[in-house]
Design goal:
The chain is α/β, with parallel strands linked by helices and 370 residues long. It folds into two domains: 130 residues, 3-Layer(aba) Sandwich (Rossmann fold); 180 residues, NAD(P)-binding Rossmann-like Domain (Rossmann fold, 3-Layer(aba) Sandwich), CATH 3.40.50. Helix content is 41%, strand content 16%. The protein has 13 helices and 13 strands. Strands 10-9-8-7-11-12-13 form a seven-stranded mixed β-sheet, with helices on both faces. Strands 1-2-5-4 form a four-stranded mixed β-sheet. A two-stranded parallel ribbon has the order 3-6. Helix 2 packs across helix 13, helix 6 packs across helix 7 and helix 12 crosses helix 13. The protein is globular, with a radius of gyration of 20 Å. The two termini are 21 Å apart. The structure holds nicotinamide-adenine-dinucleotide. Nicotinamide-adenine-dinucleotide binds next to helix 5, helix 6, helix 7 and strand 8.
């Protein structure tokens, strides 16, 4: 338990719960970080190598993301140990066992994350009811299908263009990771007039300076293929996506992909973080020194959690798009103005804003963090 207490500070975590049921091979962790703003909201991640520490870091990130987005939710996260590609029935048993073990933890609302999806959220709804991100037929709003996060990213770019003398019309953009976030970000940016010149997935990169057909690429992915099977572009290896000259570079795949050793290879004017923690803090400092505008993850990719919070309140899809647009535009502007005014990194401005919102909520509570 020492590692968990080493992570604790004046914000949290409030609770760390280990779940173990050897009968079905279930091992999982729930971290409820801070619930001053309301019941915690954050996804259930399934991966073979997740740790309690990672869960605690992700729960803290949700405290800040939810506060920054002005949601009446605190931050929490659950991780389930196991290979997400295990047989469906086995995975369903683990998910059902995990949520049943956490049935009484009413200050945590289950949601999908990497390795889980709306199908497993339906199982949680069946068992305990306290979940968002369920299928449409159960009253859910399928956030990946409607492109909630990609829609939000496109609005972050629309605001950010004023801060780096860039015009979204004709801006050339690159996306690392053509999945739920990446393909919808591409679709909405194209609708605003921007031009996709390169995208990648786990199989490699494709590049065409004259532009890529996003509908054709989306159809390839829906058919279970890779973007490298698109034939109107030059193929490069996965890492080559970093070097491609563009106006807007969007990481939408894995954590820590841009770090001190490769940040100098980026040849862009703006980085918009679709993935969670895709750029290390040291690399963000270098971007700042080089005058490359950087919009931090929990500001730019909040569309998904805003959608989840609206589903929780019983709202509909029209309310989702209006709310994402309003919150993403306001927050991006507030963060970039503060960064400019105080000559600090956008991440530091974003953290200060989120921290202020959590502190304000805590000031009304009898207990500090719950
Ligand atoms: P996804 O699984 O739908 O898509 C990920 C894509 O990245 C896939 O196309 C995959 O092939 C590709 N990929 C994997 N490794 C890669 C690599 N090394 N190089 C290039 N591409 C690679 O996932 P997603 O839902 O789009 O999420 C992507 C990231 O965004 C994750 O970090 C996730 O935590 C974050 N995020 C997602 C949402 C959401 O609404 N889905 C919201 C906030 C943050």
């Amino acid at each position: 338990m020492n590692d968990v207490f080493a992570l604790a500070d004046d914000l949290g975590p409030l609770k760390v719960i280990h779940v173990h049921e050897p009968g079905i091979g279930l091992r999982g962790v729930l971290v409820i970080d801070n619930i001053a703003r309301g019941p915690s909201l954050g996804g259930v991640r399934m991966a073979a190598d997740v740790t309690t520490e990672e869960c605690a870091r992700l729960a803290r990130a949700m405290t800040f993301k939810n506060a920054a987005a002005g949601l009446a939710h605190g931050g929490g996260k659950a991780v389930l140990m196991g290979d997400p590609k295990m047989p469906r029935a086995q995975k369903d048993t683990l998910v059902r066992g995990f949520c049943c073990a956490l049935r009484d933890e009413e200050q945590y609302i289950f949601a999908p994350d990497m390795g889980t999806n709306e199908e497993f959220m339906a199982s949680i709804k069946d068992e305990i009811g306290r979940v968002v991100g369920v299928p449409r037929e159960l009253g859910g709003i399928p956030l990946d299908e409607i492109g909630a996060t990609g829609f939000g990213l496109s609005h972050a770019v629309a605001v950010a263009q004023d801060f780096c003398d860039l015009r979204i019309e004709d801006a050339r953009f690159v996306i690392q990771g053509f999945g739920a976030v990446g393909k919808h970000a591409a679709k909405f940016l194209c609708a605003a007039g921007a031009i996709p010149v390169a995208v990648s997935d786990s199989a490699g990169t494709i590049y065409n300076p004259d532009g890529l057909d996003i509908d054709a690429l989306t159809a390839l992915k829906s058919a279970g293929k890779s973007v490298i099977e698109y034939d109107k572009a030059e193929q490069r290896d996965g890492d080559a996506i970093i070097d491609i000259e563009c106006d807007i570079w969007i990481p939408a795949a894995r954590p820590d992909v841009i770090h001190e050793a490769n940040v100098h290879r980026l040849n862009t004017r703006m980085v918009v973080q679709g993935a969670n923690i895709p750029v290390t803090y040291a690399a963000e400092k270098i971007l700042h020194e080089k005058g490359i505008l950087n919009i931090p993850d929990f500001i730019a990719n909040a569309g998904g959690v805003i959608c989840a919070a609206i589903e929780y309140q019983g709202g509909g899809e029209a309310a989702v798009f209006a709310s994402i647009e309003e919150k993403l535009c306001r927050n991006t502007r507030e963060v970039l103005e503060a960064a400019q005014r105080e000559q600090i990194l956008p991440r530091d401005a974003a953290l200060a804003m989120a921290r202020r919102r959590v502190d304000q909520a805590m000031s009304h509570r009898r207990w500090h963090i719950f």
